[in-house]
Design goal:
With 253 residues, the chain is of the alpha/beta class. The protein contains eight helices and seven strands. Helix 1 packs across helix 8 and helix 6 crosses helix 7. Bound molecules: NADP nicotinamide-adenine-dinucleotide phosphate.
């Protein structure tokens, strides 16, 4: 199947590691031009060096997406470097931590505001595309009770609702908006490796929730995100695609 990504221009936030890195590598393998960021400049430079190919344009630059002005300026530079934008995947999260007002502010400013600011800033470019597509990263933490009443879980739910309503608003401009909600994704240096080391009982519980006994990998979730972002998924908009290898137990009617 041809995903129709050759020559498309994609902007991804948070992509030197983990899921974002997997998404950017797959987009480039499919012939898309990519712009991405993270906060750590030498890791961005390493990622650009390792991902770049002669036939695609790879733009990477360090920015903290929590800094609204710096982030908007970075989005402008990414659009200029790529010559436009067909796909936006805001991947950065403030992460999950036990509840406190500090975490609510952090998850609001990072998860929610950087997504909304990015969608608003890039919308004129996505509208010009003809195949504009936004994939917002949710979480299974938003769709079922998980661990504790964390800001992360509630704000991910807000993002999924935002994705649905934005999809209705911009559909006439041929921009699709979806959420992809991963279940636990295991990778070296990621949250689940940390949980395995620090909370082994909780980690074992999580493994038992997956019928196959295997947590997801970066490559597996990147394939879902890149497919939903691609023109091949032209019928899918306003969806929340739960990709969790059976981790959640609800019936998705
Ligand atoms: N991993 C899972 O099991 C899982 C499950 C469900 C949903 N998700 C969601 O999937 C997305 C990616 O998760 P992940 O686990 O792959 O994340 P990760 O390993 O923590 O990777 C985060 C990436 O974002 C960058 N980053 C972090 N804060 C940033 C900021 N303020 N500004 C710019 N860049 C920033 C990091 O680099 P620097 O540190 O250098 O900035 C890194 O490149 C998140 O939205 C997460 O909530 C993950």
């Amino acid at each position: 199947m041809d995903l129709g990504l050759r020559g498309k221009r994609a902007i991804v936030t948070g992509a030197t590691k983990g899921i974002g890195r997997g998404v950017v590598e797959l987009l480039v393998a499919e012939g898309a031009h990519v712009g991405f960021c993270a906060r750590t400049a030498d890791e961005v430079a390493e990622a650009v060096e390792s991902i770049k190919r002669p036939d695609v344009n790879v733009f990477g630059e360090a920015v903290n997406v929590r800094d609204g002005e710096a982030y908007k300026a970075w989005l402008d530079r990414a659009v200029t470097a790529l010559g436009g934008c067909d796909i936006f995947i805001p991947g950065v999260s403030g992460g999950a931590a036990m509840d406190s007002e500090k975490n609510w502010v952090r998850n609001f400013e990072i998860d929610m505001l950087h997504t909304v600011r990015g969608c608003e800033a890039l919308m004129p470019h996505l509208e010009k595309s003809g195949t504009g597509s936004i994939v917002i990263i949710g979480s299974t933490n938003a769709v079922e009770t998980f661990a504790a009443p964390m800001a992360y879980n509630a704000i991910k739910a807000g993002l999924i609702t935002y994705a649905k309503q934005l999809s209705q608003y911009v559909g006439k401009k041929l921009v699709r908006v979806n959420a992809v909600s991963p279940g636990p994704i295991y990778f070296e240096g990621g949250a689940w490796e940390m949980i395995k080391g620090t909370q082994p009982k909780f980690y074992d519980w999580a493994i038992k929730q997956v019928p196959s006994g295997k947590l997801g990998t970066v490559e597996e979730i990147a394939r879902v995100i890149v497919f939903i972002a691609s023109p091949a998924a032209s019928l899918i908009t306003g969806a929340n695609v739960v990709a969790d290898n059976g981790f959640t137990k609800r019936v998705q009617l």
